[in-house]
Design goal:
The structure holds two protein chains of two kinds.
Chain A: E1 6-15, E2 23-28, E3 50-52, H1 54-63, H2 65-68, E4 73-77, H3 85-97, E5 101-106, H4 113-122, E6 125-130, H5 135-142, H6 147-160, E7 164-170, H7 178-188, E8 194-201, H8 207-212, H9 227-237, E9 244-246
Parallel strand pairs in A: 2-4, 4-5, 5-6, 6-7, 7-8, 8-9
Antiparallel strand pairs in A: 1-2, 1-3
Chain B: H1 17-24, H2 40-58, E1 64-70, E2 98-101, H3 107-116, H4 123-132, H5 136-143, H6 146-153, E3 157-158, H7 174-179, H8 181-194, H9 201-226, H10 238-255, H11 267-279, H12 285-300, H13 310-313, E4 322-326, H14 338-349, E5 357-362, H15 368-381, E6 385-388, H16 389-396, E7 401-404, E8 408-411, E9 415-419, E10 422-424, H17 425-433, H18 459-491, H19 495-498, E11 506-514, H20 516-528, E12 530-535, E13 541-547, H21 558-576, E14 585-590, H22 596-601, H23 631-639, E15 649-650, E16 653-656, H24 665-681, E17 686-691, H25 694-702, E18 711-713, E19 718-720, H26 726-734, E20 737-738
Parallel strand pairs in B: 1-2, 4-5, 5-6, 9-11, 10-11, 11-14, 14-15, 16-17, 16-20
Antiparallel strand pairs in B: 3-10, 6-17, 7-8, 12-13, 18-19
The chains are: A alpha/beta, B alpha/beta.
C-alpha cells in the first residue's frame, strides 16, 4: 500500500536543539494554533509546503545514520506535526525498522486517534510544548483552546511508560509568574517518565518571518529575560525537576 | 633494552623511527585532567613574543628584515628570545621575528618583498644574484612554453610554485633526536657508495643530491654548536629530544621558505622520552608541559619573507607548520599519548593560534577522552582541523605519516610530494561553452572544441566539450609541473629536509582543482533546468538565463553530488595518464587555500547563476548559501567525493555558531564528536571546524587590536582573522555559518 506523503516545510539535517544528539529535524507545514512568539510563522498556514514521499525522507535519514550513533535520530516538528499523524505512523515505523530513533515535537493539542497512537505507542520520544499554565493565559497566548487536551496527552504518555520531555517558553510577564512555576512543579513534578524539562527563554528571532508574511508580530515590544529572572526560575524549578535545562 | 632504556628493535640496526615508536609508545586512554598550565618561564617568554607580535602587526606585518645575509642552515649565529627563560632554544635568524632572504627560489620576489617594506638589499647580494647565481624562478621561465604562460596569466593555472619555493616536503625530524647526526651521515655515505653506474641522468642526479644532503647534515651540526648543542649524538633526555627535533626542523626553515613546511608527527615520538623521564622522576608534568609549550612557541614564531602579491593565494602569512596528532597504529593500538594532549594544551597555555597547524588524525577507535578533548579545544579555539586516519591508513598503507601543507598524506621519511597548486576547473568548463576560448579575453586556449549549437545548453554536448577541455588543460598543467619540479631540484634542492628522508623516496605529484562546486551546480543546472547563455558580440558568454529549479551540491542529493564525484574522477584520470618528472605518481586535491577569492575574480559568469568575479567556495565546500538542508546534508554531499580519486585531499570547512552545536557545553562536545565520527564514518577525508559567532568576526573587523589571537580555519589551514585583507574577511563572513536552531 502506498503511504501518504508528508507536507514538509523544510529539513534541518544538523538539529541539535530538538531532542538528544544530532537529529534530522523535519519541519511539517501547518499548525492548529497561533502562538504569539512563534519563530516559524511561515509554517503555520496549512497551505504551501512540499508533499514529500516518506521513502525520500527515510533515505535522507538513513544517509545520516553514522551521525546519530545510539543517541540521535529524527525529530518531526512544525507547524504541528500531529496534524499529519496518519502519515507519520508509517514514517516512524519505517525509521524504526532502519534502527533510527524517532521523536515528535508537539503542542499536545491534537487528540485524533492517530495522534494518540503516536503519543502512546509509536514515537520513541515525545516533546510536549506546554504553552501556558492557565486556561485564560493559554488561550490569549496561542489564540486557541486546548490546555486540557495537552494535560490529557501528557498523562497518556506518562501512562504508556515511555520517555518524554516538556518544553516551556519563558516570556517575562506572561508565563513566568511564581504561580505558573508552582503549577508546573505540582502538575508534572512527580511524573516518572518525564526525562527533561527545557526552559526556552523568549527571544524575537522569529520576528522577521512574521514581517515577511506581512503579518503583525504582537510581541514587538515584549522584553526578553534578564539573567536574574533566568536564575530565579532555575533556582525554583530545579528543586522539583532533576533534569532541568535552561537554553 | 637499548643503552637509554628503550625497548630494542630493528630501529637499532637501521634508520627506522616507526619501529622505535611502535616498540616504545605508551598509548594514553584517559582524559585531560592531568594537564597543567604554563610555567612562569613560559609565561614570561610568551609575553616577550606577544609584544614582538604586536610590533609586527603595527609595522605592516613585518618586524624586521635581514637584508645582508643569504639564509642557509648555519649562516646565522645563535638567536634568543629571552635566554634565561628559554628551555628550548633556536631562532631562524639572530632576532625574534626577523625575516631572512632565501633568494634561490626567485631573486625578484625577494627584491620586491624587501622594497615593499622600504628597504634595500645589500649590493653584494644583489650583484651575486643578478650576475652569478641562477634561481629556480629563472630556470622555470627559461623553459616555460608560450602556451603555459598563457594558461598561467589568464588564470587557468594559478599559484604555481614557479616564483616561490614549493615546500610540502616533510623531513623526518625525529631522526636527529633518535640517531644523532653522525649516524645519519654514515647512512647517507653508505647510500652514496651504493649508487653506481651506468651513469644515467637519474643516477648522476641522485649522487649529487645525496652528496648535498651529507653536506647539509654537517651544517646542521654547526648550527647546533652555535647554541652549545651537540647534535652529532642522539638526544639523551626528554628536553634534548624536543630540542634536537626542533633543531632539525629549524635547519629546514632556515634553508627553505616553501609555502608549507610541515613538522610531521612528532608528539607521540617525544612522549616516549618525556614519559621515561617522568617515570624515572627526572622531570615533572610541569616541566614536560614547559618543553612542549616552548617548542610550540618557537613554531609559532617561524617566518618567511613574502611579497604582498603572495597574500592573494596564501592569505594571512601562513607557514603551515603542520603537526599531525593521534591516529591508530596498524596493530590496533592508538597513537594518542599524553604528549598529544600536551600539544593541544598549548592552545590554552599560550592562547589560540593558527600555527602550528594542528591536525587531528581521527579514527572511530580513538580513545573517548581524547575525542572529547579535541572537540572541546575546537569549540574553544577554532584552531584545529581533522583528517580521516582510517581512510588514509588503509588506502595509503602506512600508519606513520604526516600531513603536508593542509590536507595531504605523506609517509614520514619514505615519501615526498611535488606541490602542484591547482587548476581552475570552472574556467575549464567555460572553455567548453566558448569554443575553447577564454571567456574574458577571447584568447584561443584549446583547439578542437566546436561552438555549441542552439540557444539552450544541451547537457551531453556541454559534457563532451568539457571532456576535451579537461584533457588539454591537464596536459598543459602537467607540462608546467614537470618544468617547475625539474628546476626546483636543480636550483633550490631541499638538502636539509631530504637528508632526513630515505635516499630515493617515493614521490607524489600533488595536483589540485578549484571551483568544483561551481562546476557541479553548473552542470546540474544545464541538466535539470533550462540554461541559455547570454553572449557578447564576440560570442563569449557573459551571463546565463536559468529557467526552472535544479538540485544544488550541498544538500545530500545524488542527482548533483554524483556530478561532482564524477568530475573529480574524470579529471584525476586525465592527469594520471601523463608522465611526470622523476616518475612521480599523480594525486589530486580538491583544495583552494584562500585562492578561491582570486580565482573567482578571474572567472566570468558561470551557468549555475554565479556572477562574474564572485569568489568560489573554498576547497570542496558547497557554494555559500546553497546548502539549504543544514550542516549534515552539506557534509554528506562532500563525503561522496571518492578519496581514491583525490588522494591529495578533499578539503571541507565547517563553520557553526556555538549555540547551534548544542544547549550545554557537554552537549556541544558530544555533538561535535558525533559529527566527526559520522562524517569520517562516511569515508570523508578532511574537516576544518570553526565554532564562532559571526558577530565576533564583525567586531574583530572593527576593532582588530582587541583580537590579536582570534583564529579561524580557512581551507586546510588557520589564520589570525585580523591578518586577512578586508576582502578576504568579507568572504569568510559570507560563507555558510550553520546557525539554525
Amino acid at each position: 500500500m502506498e503511504s501518504k506523503p508528508l507536507n514538509v516545510h523544510s529539513i534541518e539535517s544538523f538539529g541539535t536543539q530538538d531532542g538528544p544528539g544530532i537529529r534530522m529535524v523535519v519541519f511539517l507545514q501547518g499548525c492548529n494554533i497561533r502562538c504569539k512568539y512563534c519563530q516559524n510563522a511561515d509554517t503555520i498556514s496549512l497551505e504551501g509546503g512540499t508533499l514529500t514521499p516518506i521513502d525520500d525522507l527515510v533515505k535522507r535519514a538513513v544517509n545520516m545514520k553514522p551521525y546519530f550513533k545510539n543517541i540521535g535520530g529524527v525529530t518531526v516538528s512544525g507547524g504541528e506535526p500531529l496534524l499529519q499523524a496518519d502519515a507519520l505512523i508509517p514514517f516512524f515505523k519505517a525509521l524504526n525498522a532502519e534502527g533510527i530513533n524517532t521523536n515528535v515535537d508537539t503542542n499536545g493539542t491534537v487528540t485524533t486517534e492517530a495522534a494518540k497512537k503516536i503519543i502512546s505507542e509509536v514515537s520513541d520520544l515525545v516533546m510536549f510544548d506546554v504553552k501556558h499554565t492557565t486556561v485564560e493565559g493559554f488561550e490569549a497566548l496561542v489564540k486557541a483552546r486546548g490546555l486540557k487536551k495537552v494535560i490529557e496527552n501528557i498523562e497518556l504518555r506518562e501512562q504508556s511508560g515511555k520517555p518524554y520531555w516538556l518544553r516551556y517558553v519563558l516570556v517575562p510577564g506572561i508565563t513566568d509568574s511564581d504561580e505558573s512555576l508552582e503549577w508546573l512543579a505540582q502538575t508534572f513534578g512527580n511524573n516518572k517518565h518525564l526525562d527533561r524539562l527545557e526552559i526556552l527563554p523568549f527571544h524575537k528571532l522569529g520576528e522577521h518571518k512574521w514581517e515577511m508574511l506581512g503579518e503583525k508580530y504582537e510581541l514587538q515590544d515584549q522584553e526578553e529575560n534578564t539573567q536574574e529572572n533566568l536564575d530565579r526560575v532555575e533556582a525554583y524549578l530545579s528543586k522539583t525537576f532533576k533534569n532541568l535545562v535552561i537554553k | 633494552m637499548s643503552s637509554q632504556g628503550f625497548k630494542s628493535g630493528v630501529w637499532e640496526q637501521e634508520i627506522n623511527v616507526r619501529d622505535f615508536v611502535l616498540k616504545n609508545i605508551t598509548p594514553y586512554e584517559g582524559d585531560d585532567s592531568f594537564l597543567v598550565g604554563p610555567s612562569a618561564k613560559t609565561q614570561k617568554l610568551w609575553d616577550v613574543c606577544k609584544e614582538a607580535l604586536k610590533e609586527e602587526r603595527e609595522n605592516n606585518g613585518v618586524r624586521e628584515i635581514d637584508t645582508k645575509t643569504v639564509s642557509m642552515i648555519a649562516s646565522f649565529g645563535a638567536g634568543y628570545i629571552d635566554q634565561e627563560n628559554e628551555t628550548i632554544v633556536g631562532l631562524q635568524t639572530d632576532k625574534l621575528l626577523k625575516r631572512a632572504m632565501k633568494p634561490y627560489g626567485g631573486f625578484k620576489v625577494v627584491q620586491k618583498a624587501v622594497s615593499e617594506h622600504g628597504l634595500e638589499i645589500d649590493p653584494v647580494v644583489t650583484e651575486a644574484f643578478s650576475k652569478y647565481c641562477k634561481t629556480h624562478n629563472d630556470g622555470v621561465f627559461d623553459a616555460y612554453t608560450d602556451e603555459i604562460r598563457k594558461f598561467r596569466s589568464l588564470g587557468f593555472l594559478t599559484g604555481l610554485p614557479d616564483n616561490y619555493a614549493r615546500g610540502r616536503i616533510i623531513g623526518d625530524y625525529r631522526r636527529v633526536a633518535l640517531y644523532g647526526i653522525n649516524r645519519l651521515i654514515e647512512g647517507k655515505k653508505a647510500d652514496l657508495e651504493g649508487i653506481t653506474g651506468p651513469m644515467t641522468d637519474h643516477t648522476i642526479r641522485l649522487r649529487e643530491e645525496v652528496a648535498e644532503q651529507i653536506r647539509a647534515l654537517g651544517e646542521m651540526i654547526k648550527m647546533g654548536a652555535a647554541y652549545g648543542l651537540d647534535l652529532s649524538r642522539p638526544a639523551e633526555t626528554g628536553r634534548e629530544a624536543v630540542q634536537w627535533t626542533y633543531m632539525a626542523y629549524l635547519a629546514a626553515v632556515k634553508e627553505q621558505d616553501g609555502a608549507a613546511m610541515s613538522l610531521g608527527s612528532v608528539s607521540s615520538f617525544l612522549d616516549i622520552y618525556l614519559k621515561r623521564d617522568i617515570d624515572n622522576g627526572v622531570i615533572t608534568e610541569e616541566i614536560a608541559q614547559e618543553y612542549i609549550d616552548q617548542f610550540v612557541m618557537k613554531l609559532r614564531m617561524v617566518r618567511h619573507l613574502r611579497m604582498e602579491a603572495y597574500d592573494q593565494i596564501f592569505a594571512g602569512d601562513p607557514t603551515w607548520v603542520t603537526e599531525s596528532i593521534g591516529g591508530m597504529l596498524a596493530d590496533g593500538r592508538s597513537k594518542v599519548t599524553q604528549t598529544s594532549f600536551r600539544f593541544l594544551q598549548t592552545l590554552y597555555n599560550l592562547g589560540p593560534s593558527p600555527e602550528p597547524n594542528i591536525t587531528i588524525l581521527w579514527s572511530d577507535k580513538l580513545p573517548q577522552g581524547f575525542k572529547d578533548y579535541c572537540a572541546k579545544v575546537s569549540i574553544d579555539t577554532s584552531s584545529i582541523q581533522y583528517e580521516n586516519d582510517d581512510l588514509m591508513r588503509e588506502n595509503r598503507c602506512s600508519d606513520d605519516y604526516g600531513i603536508a601543507c593542509c590536507v595531504s598524506f605523506q609517509e614520514l621519511g619514505k615519501h615526498i610530494q611535488f606541490f602542484g597548486a591547482r587548476t581552475n576547473l570552472a574556467k575549464t568548463l567555460l572553455l567548453a561553452l566558448n569554443g575553447g576560448r577564454c571567456e574574458n579575453t577571447g584568447t584561443l586556449m584549446v583547439e578542437g572544441i566546436a561552438p555549441l549549437e542552439g540557444d539552450v545548453l544541451d547537457y551531453d554536448a556541454v559534457v563532451a566539450n568539457f571532456k576535451i577541455a579537461m584533457k588539454q588543460v591537464a596536459r598543459v598543467y602537467n607540462e608546467s609541473m614537470n618544468i617547475i619540479h625539474y628546476m626546483h631540484d636543480k636550483y633550490y634542492y631541499e638538502k636539509a629536509q631530504m637528508s632526513l628522508i630515505d635516499t630515493n623516496p617515493r614521490i607524489n605529484i600533488a595536483y589540485g582543482i578549484a571551483g568544483l562546486s561551481i562546476v557541479a551546480d553548473s552542470l546540474s543546472a544545464i541538466k535539470h533546468a533550462k540554461v541559455t547563455p547570454v553572449r557578447n558580440e564576440e560570442g563569449l558568454t557573459t551571463d546565463f538565463k536559468i529557467e526552472g529549479e535544479f538540485p544544488k551540491y550541498g544538500n545530500d542529493d545524488d542527482r548533483v553530488d554524483f556530478i561532482a564525484r564524477d568530475v573529480v574522477e574524470h579529471f584525476n584520470n586525465d592527469l594520471k595518464e601523463l608522465r611526470v618528472y622523476k616518475d612521480a605518481e599523480a594525486t589530486m586535491s580538491v583544495l583552494t587555500i584562500t585562492s578561491n577569492v582570486s580565482y573567482g575574480k578571474k572567472t566570468g559568469a558561470t551557468p549555475d547563476g554565479r556572477a562574474a568575479g564572485i569568489p568560489f567556495a573554498p576547497g570542496a565546500n558547497p557554494m555559500h548559501g546553497r546548502d539549504t538542508h543544514g550542516a549534515i546534508a552539506s557534509l554528506n554531499s562532500v563525503s561522496k567525493i571518492n578519496y581514491k580519486d583525490s588522494q591529495d585531499g578533499v578539503s571541507n570547512t565547517f563553520s557553526i555558531v556555538p549555540k547551534s552545536l548544542g544547549a550545554t557545553e557537554g552537549e556541544r562536545v558530544n555533538n561535535l564528536v558525533f559529527a566527526l565520527d559520522g562524517y569520517f564514518g562516511k569515508n570523508a577525508h578532511h574537516l576544518n571546524v570553526n565554532v564562532l559567532n559571526r558577530e565576533t568576526l564583525m567586531d574583530a573587523m572593527e576593532r582588530p587590536e582587541e583580537y590579536p589571537q582570534l583564529t579561524i580555519r580557512v581551507s586546510g589551514y588557520a589564520v589570525n582573522f585580523v591578518r586577512l585583507s578586508k576582502e578576504q574577511q568579507m568572504e569568510v563572513l559570507t560563507r555558510s555559518f550553520h546557525d539554525k536552531m
